[in-house]
Amino acid sequence: MVSKWNMIVDVERCNNCRACFLAVKDEHTGNDFPDYAAEQPPMGANWLDIERKERGRYPIVDAHFMPVMCNHCDDAPCMKVAKDGAIRKRDDGIVIIDPVKAKGQKEIVDACPYGAVSWNEELQLPQAWIFDAHLLDSGWNKTRAEQCCPTDVFKSVKVEDAQMQKMAADEGLEVLQPELGTKPRVYYKNMHFFNRCFVGGSVIATVDGVEECAADAEIILQQDGGELARATTDTFGEFKIDKLKPNSGSYQLEIIGTAGKLSQTFELGAESLYLGELRLV
Amino acid sequence: MRLAVILWGIPQAMRACAAIFPKFKERLKERDCIAQFALKDQRDKGRWIQLKDGRISTGAGVHANPDFTIFFKNAKIAADFLTPPFNQLERIHAAKNFMITMAGPDDLIVWFMHLVASMESYTWTSGTDMGNGVTRYTNGTNGGPIFVYVKDGKILRTTSMDFDGSDPGSFTIKARGKTFKPPRKTTLAAHGACQKSMVYSKNRILKPMKRVDFDPHGDRNIQNRGKSEFVEISWEEALDIVSGEIKRCKKVGPGAILVANGSHHQWGNLGHYLSAFNRFWNLIGVSKLMHSPDSWEGWFWGAQHHWGNSMRLGAAEPYGTVEDCLQEAEMIVFWSSDPDATYGFEGTQRRRWAKELGIKMVHIDPYLNHTAAHLGGKWISPKPGTDTAFAQALTYIWITEGTYDKEFVEKRTTGFDEWKAHVLGEDDGIPKTPEWQEGETGVPARDCRALAREWASKKTYLGVGGWGCGIGGACRGPTGAQWARMMTILAAMQGIGKPGSNMGNLQFGAPVDMNFYFPGYAEGSMSGDLAYSANSTNNYQRMPHIVTMSSVKQVIPRMWLPEAIMGKPKLGYVTAVDSVVGQFFPIGYPSPGHVPVEMIYKYGSSSFGTMVESNRWVRMYQHESLKFVVNQSVWWEGETKYADVILPACTVFERWDLGEWYNVGPGYVHHMYSMNNHRVISLQHKCIEPLGESKSDYDIFLAIAEKLDLGAVYSEGGNSELEWCKRAYESSDCAKDMSWRQFLKKGYYVVKPEPEGSRAPVGLRWFYEGRKKDVPEPYPLPSDYVDKYAEGLQTPSGKYEFVPTTLKRFDDPERPPVNKYMRTFENSENEPEIAAKYPLQLLSPHSRYPFHLMGDDEGCFLRDIREHRVKVGDHYYLTCRISPADAEARGIKDDDLIRLWNDRGSVVCAAQVTDRLRPGVISAPTASSEYRPAGEPGKSTDLGGCINILNTSKPITTKSHGIRPNTTLIEVEKWTGVDTWKPVESSQEVA
To answer: What is the CATH number of domain B2-123?
Structure first.
């Protein structure tokens, strides 16, 4: 068995500082690396980009960021459309779009379901993030994205596939659009910030005629009569139950506080839900 | 005899150097001259050296026809001066006491002296060989130190630094059973990580230029500044025009020349405006701008009256707060505090440790800011400008429920009863209840009560502004002084200084070595400027150099420069840091005995993007009284073309410099490097040759100086930047541990971590415990202690003053001694007509990705960051945040081009619709490098993104010249592409 490169990206650790995004631009703008990648256009080609996801509604909102790039798929759709061996899969798992052979093959751009391949208009060339293969081949032990990240979002690991699969299962790693069967080599941790929803609310109690935040109220989330999750409101009477599947139907919420109770049903759509002010009675 | 040998040795050394080093041989060919070394007391003794077509001839004695002569008083002084190793202090002493003098053409002397001095440098090697023709150099940026990989004279890549085995270790923080250690590397803010694109930007100025319709000897066409195009000219012509105008203006009278620099510069001690720039202008004598403390405003004009700290511009002592917070605090309240926005990510790592420890987080800000989004926690979003009401209501709960630190208030403060009476409404009939504040702030009363109770029952850190102890955010608004004052009141009522109760947000005050000396940029490096830099603190003694001092005393408040030029000057107040009351001193214009300004020398940056009500600058530049304008810049920025001559400066990658990561120095941010987890000092290698015909700032000033026979004085007898670097390095503690040659090669030095026992104590712990001040800052000045030295605060009582004595001695209606909540100036009550027309409040915080406007350049990678700018058509528009409710009401969607406007101006941005913003509030970053008027400059809509066009130039408080850019009222609509905005007549008045 051979060791292959994989990238693990922890969404929770990313604050959109853009160091990785800028490092990839810095590496490839004005630099031609024969056999690996031709120069990147100075502006507009974001081989590594960062997606933004805001969940909830004012004032219970969260925002997360996810670096996205070429997934170096083991069953890469781009390779299926590439002609003349324009894309090669290296023994270490890295996918390289040949900067000479791929010239003119715009269909490679369209073939990528992740939109990770960009079209260099000037050079008539499809281009993507090369996992810093040119640096790894010359002795670097990690990618530039990992080198520069202040909060350790990235972990590039070179292991056998079986070991990677075990790691993915143990740590709950996910890949982008697994249903496509492309077998990406880029894995994500804490992806629920992007593909799951929360339900939250502000629980209020009336004490001696004065409105107060209902702290320490118990929240029980149920669906179809079965209990799914429990939570407790914080000092400000707020709660948030996360990792719910989008469009997962109707739920029932029981809120039990010292100042009273409340039952609430809601329908979860595509986005996270802020139930607003919930007054115990 | 000794002297004769030494003098004989000089030409011999030159010949040897030329034989070994072809570059030196080439330099010999640059100029022909006969140099004479002579003694004043023995006129027949000496030696001459002739250079002709690169060949050296020499003779003992005195030449009949030397081009210039270097005189020594006698043989001993000459021998001491010329014998290595050189004693810099003795050399400076000899020069400034006329024991060595020169006669002859200044430029030739400077050239020759530098030629001789530079011989040693040919034996130096710099950078690390990485193989394949790649050399790894080092450099420094405002965003952090970097490695620079260079191949074939071109920058290949820039990266943050990974430490290796030759570097010392890192500190350890133990907190609640856990041990934390920072990563073994440096981190970079975005504006530090985009530098390669800045160097090779299409927007670089590469040749000297002259406005096509400007004739210094004929028609100047002043009215066309900002409209006309430019033609390239030679350096010689440019220098002739500029030096000619300097001479002309000096004859007009003192103060006729004004120099205008931005607040910042490229990183590096030598090239900074406080160094090479100040040194030069002190030799010329110029009017200067009085900058307001524009990132501190409310702390400076307000907070410091309660507790002093004038040399921190009113901000809190940061020492030891990182460890104390991690070890003791149970909650951090971030109040208008977004350290993740601007100040790099060293603190981000530490805040993640706090999260790991389960410390609760609360964020008070109308925008769910970057730090808040990353950390999570409770978000409270008051209406902009109303935070004071919210804070007062917190104290109402503490007072009525008896949950403040009574012992601290009793022993360490004054004026509490008067304050308490105000909070309870005994003086004005308004109890400052949570319900009362809800009407002002929009924050539910229950949230106010919950926070007040949680705060009083838990050890709480109050993180104010970006650094946790001041700077940025709510202090920069019309209610900024009230707010900053309230923050100190909250801290005092909860016993600031006791374990776990302090100001901080883990950004400032990491346990690094605070005693190891390396100069910060504010120490002025080579400036010799004892008056307008922190040079006198350490640098003047550590690096002997000649003092410089300007004979011109005229200063103009920067915010009101246009008014001064256009003949309607406004009264400013001194931005004094040495005392609390220095800020009460008024400054008028013109100064007595001085003349009005008729020449401006603009040094980088763009006022359009950084100064409030910026359309005023267009009117100023086109005003007939302003006869000449020079702009010395690296890039074409919004203001650059409002000039007559443009001089191309190079980037810091094309010249020599040195500096320490975030080491600003004493004077206003002492020990700022404790924002970092490691102290990193970097040589800023000249990595590549200057692009085009650009030159370093130092070389530009030297070239102008030579036109005025000031070259030898400016360069201290021919020092180049590299020699200055060596002198500065050898003045530091680094040189005791790493030789100059080693430093030159490796390029950086990491200071050893501070052992636990000798780390700086926690800020104000000494005050809380009633001891002498023990944190390592030399403030306040000894004369400002009212009792024994180092006892008490810098207030007239030596205690924390709830009702400041100094404000009782001064009459400013917006700074009453009792800190009242006063509504922000532009509101429906004060200005109903304005409020009806412009219903939205504009926040203009510090930019997240550029550093002010550095990095916002059109050729910079940062423009591709969609949270910064969005490309629509062929232009990148500044991103502006708007709530879904406000967007929907105006038919605005994400990335739509929208127009923001009021009576003062109109600016087009790209919308970012977000639930992270309180409805009714618009948020757009304060700085833009670009100014792109859709029509007539100053009288049309700006497409460049200069948000400050919309902000008022009224001061933060009546008797100040501080800015108040936040809470400005505006309206927003979808941009139609047709500019219909016209300036309102009254907004064109300057008075």
So the answer is: 3.30.1050.10
